[in-house]
Amino acid sequence: MQPHAIDRPSIVACIEHSGVFRKLAGESRERLLTEAFVAYADRGEVIWFAGSESRFSATLASGYVKLVRTAAQGTAVTVDIAGPGHTIGLLAVVEGHSYPLTAIAVSPTWYLKVPAGLMRDLYNSDGLLRDEVLHTMAPRLRRAHDMMARLTLGKVEQRLASVVLLLADSFGVRHETGTTVAVPLTRSDLAEMAGTTVETTIRVLSRWSKQGWVEMRRRHLTVLQPEALLDRNESD
């Protein structure tokens, strides 16, 4: 799929909607405007691989990116999902480490690509930026930790319920009948995050759908009865 020029956000728009950069001013903002640039990733495209040199951070303007690690047995496990306004790869760039996780676009994604040298300069020279990094990154790190903890506990249905509730809480759009997860997820994506098979995920979602707990259509999941999933999550 080719990106549409009309959908391309400006650097200013990327900065204004960024949890990390929106308060930047003066010389720091000017450097970001001058040296960063907008890039595009299509659905399924790898933005970077785990273990590769951290050459840039990515601030998402639109679309969603999953951050994946490879388990010992070779299976891919999604440990976090980033959406508009989130910055990924930031800690690796600032600390000069390789990327710990593979970043893959879940949907067509525009993002602000900030070179590593620029990001480190801004972080080291701008106290306000450092404060924003700590303020915005801490909740996401806790969420990633929560997801990893839940994947190691409970049965498949409990893990899947945990993942769905976590996504609804992070990316949910509430309406009269329920909460729709804004991320365009497939059953394969959900299976990957829950650490199970696609077949099992389809079977569980089908049962939940018949019970009126969830609805899944056109790559979007709607939670209709979160309390029922919470019971699944907390049951022995």
Describe the structure.
There is one protein chain. By secondary structure, the protein is an alpha+beta fold. It folds into 2 domains: 5-151, Jelly Rolls (Sandwich), CATH 2.60.120.10; 156-234, Winged helix-like DNA-binding domain superfamily/Winged helix DNA-binding domain (Arc Repressor Mutant, subunit A). Helix content is 44%, strand content 23%. It has 9 helices and 12 strands. The strands form 3 sheets. A 4-stranded antiparallel beta sheet has the order 1-8-3-6. A 4-stranded antiparallel beta sheet has the order 2-7-4-5. A 4-stranded antiparallel beta sheet has the order 9-10-12-11. Strand 11 (214-217) and strand 12 form a beta hairpin. The protein is elongated and about 55 Å long.
Summarize the structure.
Helices cover 44% and strands 23% of the residues.
Topology:
Elements lengths: L10 H6 L9 H10 L1 E5 L4 E3 L7 E7 L2 E6 L5 E7 L4 E2 L1 H6 L6 E4 L3 E7 H10 L1 H25 L4 H16 E3 L4 E3 L5 H8 L3 H13 L3 E4 L2 E4 L2 H9 L2
Helix pairs in contact: 5-6, 6-7, 6-9, 7-8
